[in-house]
Specification:
Layout lengths: L1 E9 L2 E6 L2 E9 L2 H10 L5 E5 H6 L5 H10 L4 E4 L5 H9 L4 E4 L1 H5 L2 H7 L4 E8 L2 E3 L11 H7 L7 E6 L11 H10 L3 E5 L5 H8 L2 E2 L2 E2 L2 E4 L1 H4 L5 H9 L1
Parallel strand pairs: 1-4, 1-13, 4-5, 5-6, 6-7, 7-9, 9-10, 10-13
Antiparallel strand pairs: 1-2, 2-3, 7-8, 11-12
Length: about 240
């Protein structure tokens, strides 16, 4: 299972939200490029970057920061937030992003995922409260059923589906292993988990999530790393032990 340290950008800073609320923000660094270097130097082989401003408005105000991150690190960068057009996806690719994550636009226009996949690597981001998928920076519900959407994108050409349980995101209350197992059973796409990780034991629990011989492909970790619950090195040792 791949580790994806998370860098969430808002107004050029590295922040984390609590349960997706823009009114419950904790800022961790004014230098997200340096933070990205630290994660990469610690051994992370992927980074997960989210443009929170773009997720809310569709305007890629942090594009220059994302480009600087991609240039500064020697590992692939996966980026989402506000990717709602072919041009937006292409701009991220031109900025050095290895894989774009499409959330709101995938739900509202599933064909866009196929169009992007024909040109560059793409993952589908499904952010949900239970099975109710949210869109527009998690501010609107009623986007559809999580399991139905996960199955729908199997033939889209997407590399993976990134699943975030909003009620656990930023809370460090533990991952939703039952919900993730249901997603694994619903789709043959690689599944990357996000939300709730607080301890190394949570990583062990996620490694145990399976459907037959299929297991989770990755886990995104944010607040637990920023608040020192464990290090990237410890996480990688746990995931390879």
């Amino acid at each position: 299972m791949q580790l994806y340290p998370a860098i969430d950008l808002r107004d050029g800073r590295c922040v984390r939200l609590y349960q997706g609320s823009y009114d419950a923000e904790t800022a961790y660094s004014d230098d997200p490029v340096d933070q990205a270097r630290q994660f990469a130097d610690a051994g992370a082989s992927w980074l997960h970057v989210v443009d929170l401003d773009a997720a809310r408005t569709g305007e890629a105000v942090n594009l220059s920061v994302i480009a600087a991150i991609a240039e500064a690190v020697g590992v692939p960068v996966q980026t989402g937030g506000g990717v709602r057009t072919l041009d937006a996806a292409a701009a991220l690719g031109d900025a050095g992003v290895a894989r774009v994550v499409v959330g709101t636009a995938a739900v509202e226009n599933p064909g866009l995922v196929e169009q992007i996949a024909a040109r560059q690597p793409v993952a589908v981001g499904l952010d949900a409260r239970g099975r109710d998928v949210a869109t527009h920076g998690w501010e609107r519900g009623g986007g559809g059923d999580l399991l139905e959407l996960a199955a729908r994108f199997e033939s889209s050409g997407a590399d993976a589906v990134v699943v975030t349980e909003i009620s656990r995101d930023g809370t460090m209350s533990g991952p939703d292993t039952d919900g993730l197992a249901a997603v694994l059973a619903a789709t043959q796409l690689a599944v990357i988990a996000s939300g709730g990780v607080a301890t190394l034991n949570d990583l062990v629990a996620l490694e145990g999530v399976c459907d037959g011989h299929r297991r989770l492909a990755g886990v995104i970790v944010g607040r637990a790393l920023y608040e020192g619950r464990f290090t990237v090195e410890q996480a990688l040792e746990t995931l390879t032990s």
